[in-house]
Amino acid sequence: MEKILNYIREEKLNVPRHVAIILDGNGRWAKKRNMPRNLGHVQGAKTVEQIIEDGYNMGIEYITVYAFSTENWKRSMDEVEALMKLLQKYLIDCIERSTRNNMCVRVIGDKSGLDPNIVARINELEEVTKDATGLKFTIAINYGGRDEIRRAVTRIAQDISEHKLESQDITEELISSYLDTAGLPDPDLLIRTSGEERLSNFLPWQLAYTEFYFTDVLWPDFSKEDLLTAIRYYNGRDRRFGGVK
Questions:
Q1: Which residues does the annotation mark as catalytic?
Q2: Do residues 52 and 135 make contact, with C-beta atoms less than 8 angstroms apart?
Q3: I want to staple 62 with a disulfide (CB 3.0 to 4.6 A). Which of 18, 57, 202, 220 is the partner?
Q4: Which residues of the chain have pLDDT under 70?
Q5: How far apart are the C-alpha atoms of 10 and 184, rounded to whole Å?
Q6: What domains, with CATH codes, occur in the chain?
């Protein structure tokens, strides 16, 4: 890790404050090794833990990962059940790791569509880590960007009907405050692994001015060296946010 940090210092790299990651390629990783797809997800979860640690050591303040989308329910029942069991175990294990590492964890997505046991683990994890001052780690579970916006619009409409808001109060800032990510800065860099180059309904509002980095590396194989490569790519971008320099 010290070698990586030396590269960052020597190259005077600007480390993105918030990195969002689409964790893609777990199933393909397992298939290449003639393993069940679930083992790819297990290895992918281990990679998440390592990249969280590496990213924080590099100076990243926020990491948001796409763990399970609203569309992932379309997968086979066996795979969905395995993923839900893995998520529940991950959430339980995350309490101890987060406490040890002073990490604040937040889960975004439609919790109403999740098993009550998973919701209970989410609530426990968020409560236990809410005052942590280290890395801010966000996990998207049963998350869809369009669904998030729909839920936000529904809440805004409800507040208008209850005279808590007026239509003229609606600004971009207000809409952002009704999203699952309220209070989080927009991602500076999006990483998607496994060679796919699309958002797949991930944070469409928040990624409006984010830099995108796509790599052929399958998520379980993604390493701190790959993260450094993504940061170097990010440093080669000219972020003008619609303006002219």
A1: 24, 72
A2: yes
A3: 18
A4: 240-245
A5: 30
A6: 2-144+186-235 (3.40.1180.10)
The residues facing 137 across adjacent strands are 63, 105
What pLDDT, on the 0 to 100 scale, is given for residue 16?
98
Q: In this structure, which amino acid lies at residue 217?
A: V
Q: Considering all CA atoms of the chain, what is the largest pairwise distance in Å, rounded to the nearest integer?
A: 59
* Residue from 82, 101, 100, 78 nearest 90 by CA: 82
Residue type, 213: Y
* Integer angstrom CA distances of residue 177 from 164, 165, 198, 203: 14, 13, 26, 14
3-state secondary structure string across the chain: CHHHHHHHHHCCCCCCCEEEEECCCHHHHHHHCCCCHHHHHHHHHHHHHHHHHHHHHHCCCEEEEEEEEHHHHHCCHHHHHHHHHHHHHHHHHHHHHHHHHCCEEEEECCHHHCCHHHHHHHHHHHHHHCCCCCCEEEEEEEECHHHHHHHHHHHHHHHHHCCCCCHHHCCHHHHHHHCCCCCCCCCCEEEECCCCCCCCCCCCCCCCCCEEEECCCCHHHCCHHHHHHHHHHHHCCCCCCCCCC
> Side chain identity at 244, as an amino acid letter?
V
